[in-house]
Specification:
By secondary structure, the protein is an alpha+beta fold. The protein folds into 2 domains: 38 residues; 50 residues, SH3 type barrels (Roll), CATH 2.30.30. A 5-stranded antiparallel beta sheet has the order 4-3-2-1-5. The protein is rod-shaped, with a radius of gyration of 27 Å. 6% of the residues are buried.
Length: 108
């Protein structure tokens, strides 16, 4: 009983408006992509660009906060790593990409 009703309804709707259904579907897909781009993709790219600029500008003496939450001062900077002094005489070597922010940025 329900299968024949559903079949009859599907057949009637497809016969009347099949030419505009494809164009409308593509238009809705483009609108959805634009929404995702402006709400998700673009802000993430902007954050990634800012983080890369922060990593490239690191120099000894900067106060930093790592992604793990360690606060310290950069003592030395290598190509892919940085040595951070977290306490007097306690130095830790970390990846430069794991530095989340500088101390001045985290205070704001």
């Amino acid at each position: 009983m329900f299968a024949s009703t559903a079949y009859a309804m599907a057949g009637g709707a497809g016969a009347q408006g099949s030419s505009s259904g494809g164009a409308q579907g593509i238009f809705m897909l483009l609108i959805m992509f634009a929404i995702f781009y402006f709400l998700l993709i673009r802000p993430q790219q902007k954050r990634a660009k800012q983080h890369k600029a922060l990593i490239d500008a690191l120099k000894p003496g900067d106060q930093v906060v790592t992604a793990g939450g360690l606060h310290g001062k950069i003592v030395a900077v290598q190509e892919t790593a940085a040595t951070v002094e977290i306490s007097a005489g306690v130095r830790v070597k970390i990846n430069r990409s794991s530095i989340a922010s500088t101390k001045a940025e985290s205070d704001e």
